[in-house]
Amino acid sequence: MSKLLKNKLALVTGSSRGIGAAIAIRLAAEGAYVIVNYSASPERAQKVVDEITKADGLAEAVHADLGSPEGPKTLIASIDKCFGGEFGGRLDILVNNAGTAEFGPFLESSDQSYDKHFNLNVRSLIELSKDAAKRMAKSGWGRIINIGASFGEGAPIPGVTLYIASKFAVHGFTRGLSREVGSTGVTVNGVQPGPTNTDLSPEDGPVSDWFKKLTSLGRFGKAEEIAAAVAFLASPESAFINGENLTVDGGFNA
Ligand SMILES: NC(=O)c1ccc[n+]([C@@H]2O[C@H](COP(=O)([O-])OP(=O)(O)OC[C@H]3O[C@@H](n4cnc5c(N)ncnc54)[C@H](OP(=O)(O)O)[C@@H]3O)[C@@H](O)[C@H]2O)c1
Question: Over the stretch 148-202, which tens digit does the pLDDT of each residue have?
Fold first, then answer.
C-alpha cells in the first residue's frame, strides 16, 4: 500500500517526548520527512530521530525554545536548511504540539506563569502558523494541525485556568485561520486530547484516578492514539475537513 504522506515535509513542535514524539514517528511511518523540534531534551529528540531512521524513515532534530521570543524565528529559519535544503522552502505539514501546563489557584498565579502558557501554547503556534500558511499557499497544499486540549472547550476542574484560557485560544485561532486560508488549498484543524499518558500527565500521577473516572472509557489515552488522529488530518483523505477541532479524549467531554 502506498504511503499517504510520501515526500511531504512535516514539522512537529515539541516532538522529543510524549504526544509530539508519537506524532513524529507516525507521520514518518506514513512517508513524511519529519523535522523533530526540541528544547530541553536533545538526547530524547535524537532517540526519536534514531527510531524513525531505523524504520527506514527520514527525520532531523532541530533545537528551538518556542517559549522564547526568538524561538519561532529560529525554527522557521531551519525549515529552509533541513534535509540539505531539498524542499526549497516548502513546508507541507505543521503540527503545533509543544505545550505546557501549570496547576494551582489562578488568584495566586504569577505573571511568569501567564507568560509561560501564552508564549508557548499560543504565541509560538500563531507565529509558526503564519509562516507555514504562506509557504503552503505557494504550493497550493498544506495541513496545519494544532494540538489543543479537551480543556479547550470546557472547564471541568479548577486549578488550570491559564491552561484552559490558552487552549480556548488555540481552538479559536484554528477556526479563524481555517476561514482565511482554506481557499489556498491549506486546511487548519485541531486535535484536542483528553488525559493522555505522558510526562505532563502520567497515568499514575496524583490525580490520575480522578481523571480516569471523568472519561467514559475509564482510562488514559496513549500518545499513539492522539497521533493516529493527527495522521488522518494530515493525510489527503481529510481534504474536506477544515476548521474542525477533533476531540480525542475517551469521552471526557461527552
Ligand atoms: N498529556 C495530556 O494529558 C494532554 C492533554 C491535553 C492536551 N495535551 C497537549 O498535548 C501537547 C503535548 O503534551 P505532552 O503531554 O506530550 O507533554 P510533555 O510530555 O510534557 O512533552 C512536551 C513536549 O513539548 C516540548 N517543549 C516543552 N517546552 C518547549 C519549548 N519551550 N520549546 C519547544 N518545545 C518545548 C518538550 O520538549 P523538550 O523536553 O525538548 O523541551 C516535549 O517534547 C501539549 O500541547 C499539551 O497541552 C496533553
Answer: 999 999 999 999 999 999 999 999 999 999 999 999 999 999 999 999 999 999 9
8 Å CB contact between 186 and 144: yes
Mutate to test the pocket of ligand 1, among 25, 66, 200 (most ligand atoms within 8 A of CB): 200
Helices in 34-158 by DSSP H: which ranges?
42-54, 71-81, 111-116, 124-139
At 38, is the secondary structure helix, strand, or coil? strand
Write the pLDDT tens digit of every residue in 28-61.
999 999 999 999 999 999 999 999 999 999 999 9
Q: Which atom of ligand 1 approaches the CA of 98 most closely?
A: 24
Q: Is the beta carbon of 125 within 6 A of some atom in ligand 1?
A: no
User: Please, what are the domains in the chain?
Assistant: 9-248 (3.40.50.720)
**Does 1 have pLDDT greater than 70?**
no
Strand 9-12 vs strand 33-38: parallel, antiparallel, or unpaired? parallel
Of 20, 163, 171, give the one whose Cα is nearest residue 102. 163
Closest CA to 25 of 4, 2, 45, 52: 52
The reply to whether ligand 1 has any atom less than 6 angstroms from the CB of 196 is: yes
**Residue owning the nearest CA to atom 45 of ligand 1:** 99
Measured from the CA of 44, which atom of ligand 1 is nearest? 40
Q: What pTM was computed for the model?
A: 0.98
